Fold:
Amino acid sequence: MTSDTIAENPSSIYTITARVKPNETELVKGSLRVQIVIDGQLHLMEKSPLGDGLYEFDYRMPAGRTEATYYLLVNYASQRGDLVFPVEEFTELRTLRLTNRYVYTLEAVRGPIGARIAIVGRGFTPQDVVYLDSVPARTVFESPNAISFSVPAVPAGRAYAVSLNNGTTSQQVGSFRVDGLSLDVAPTSINLTTGGRATLTFALGSPAPEGGLLIDVSTDIPASVIMPEVIIPAGATTATITVQGGQPGTGNLFVTGAGSGEISVPVTVSAR
Structure:
């Protein structure tokens, strides 16, 4: 009943638990003996106070080791009529592995696009990236015990599987439901000259969540549009940025950061 992967603890003692329930009609009372063979050594498992048929063994992992291989050995006497005979059964080999990387909790189980969500655990690194299904989220390494991510611009109104990936392994974190926010952009079109400036205002229908709301803005004319990152501060409903004209061109800004559908803002940049 013990997971193959267990979180490392300061005591280096790990409880291996098994449920053993032989056929009671044939079992000779008092003959049941449950043992564990671990690292090639035989140890008696004790009855667990957690329930009938449960047996436990506290294994102390040797210093410098992170895994151990074991199997269970069960001996008892069986009676059929007047015939009493010994029975020996054993399990397949199992490997117990320690990990110093695990997740305690996801701070919230739902929130809007752009919301900053914390994950508390152990063993985080700056290489970690949070994914919602297969979509990477902007991830911030806070410490080995804390990491946070901004909910990416994915379709709202549904739940996503959250996972943590460090480039070599992926760990499931939980489920997160993404909610949408109403968003308006003004003006609805922009005309600039090269080097010219214009303001663009983003307005939410409700205050931005704790940590602020990151608005995802992209363009099909990146050489023509120079603009900063758009973040609506926590508790605020608007953010205004300055857009500067670059090379002459015609295209659009695409705003998809609030889960209310894509908003297109036509942009024209003319030479001076």
